[in-house]
Structure formats: structure tokens, C-alpha cells
Amino acid sequence: MVAVSTDADRNLEGELASASAGQVGIPVDAICVGCGRTRVKRARPAEMDQPVHVDPTDLEASDLTSFKHVCHRCQSATWWNPVAVLTGLLESEGGEQE
After folding, report:
1. How far is Cα 50 from Cα 71, in angstroms, rounded to an integer?
2. Pairing assessment for the beta strands 26-32 and 76-85 based on DSSP bridges
3. pTM across the whole model
4. What are the boundaries of each domain within the chain?
């Protein structure tokens, strides 16, 4: 399932390309529990309580657990809650980077 952010002004591909999204893992739209900001982040399946070789296209945000990642607004590593699995971004870049 391809999930789309509800914020039409965001550039999800640009967010994914940013170093702040991370370098490896499944792209997800996630909310920082510290400041409430929603950003595209990459997280490995194991970080979200999923099998290492899970097919990202089979995942729903409700399948995923919170994961730790840097929040530049909070200026620390904090917990992020996934709200959407962005498989469309995976498909546009030719697959998951591991």
C-alpha cells in the first residue's frame, strides 16, 4: 500500500534524500514524540519490531513500533511514531537500501 502524507506542501522525495532521513531502511512518515514534527525517516525493520527480511509493501503503519532517530528540531535522538509506510518512495528509487 502506498501511503501519502496529508501535508500537501511537503516534498517527501526531498525529505527522503536529506541526510536527516537516514541512510538505510524502509522510508516511513513518522511523528517525533518530542516536538510533534512529521518527517520522512528511514528505519530498519528490526528497529520497528519486524522481521529483517520483511517485504515493505506488506507493511501498514499499524504493524510498526516506535523507533529512535535524530530529531534536528529537538536536537537529540528521540522516539518517532510511524504513521505511514512510504513504499512509493521505495519503488521510485529502485528498492530498499540495506
Report:
1. 22
2. antiparallel
3. 0.82
4. 12-93
Cβ(80)–Cβ(31) below 8 Å: yes
The CA distance from 75 to 97, in Å, is 26
- Residues 98 and 77: their CA atoms lie apart, in Å, by 21
**Read out DSSP for 35-77?**
T--EEEEEE-GGGGT--TT--GGG--GGGPPPEEEEETTTTEE
| pLDDT one digit per residue (tens) for the chain, 98 residues | 344 445 568 999 999 999 999 999 999 999 999 999 999 999 999 999 999 999 999 999 999 999 999 999 999 999 999 999 998 887 776 654 44
Assign 3-state DSSP to the chain and report helix, strand, coil percentages, each to 5.
25, 30, 45
List 82's β-bridge partners, or say none: 30
Task: Using DSSP, state whether 95 is helix, strand or coil.
Answer: coil
Rounded CA separation 71/80 (Å): 9
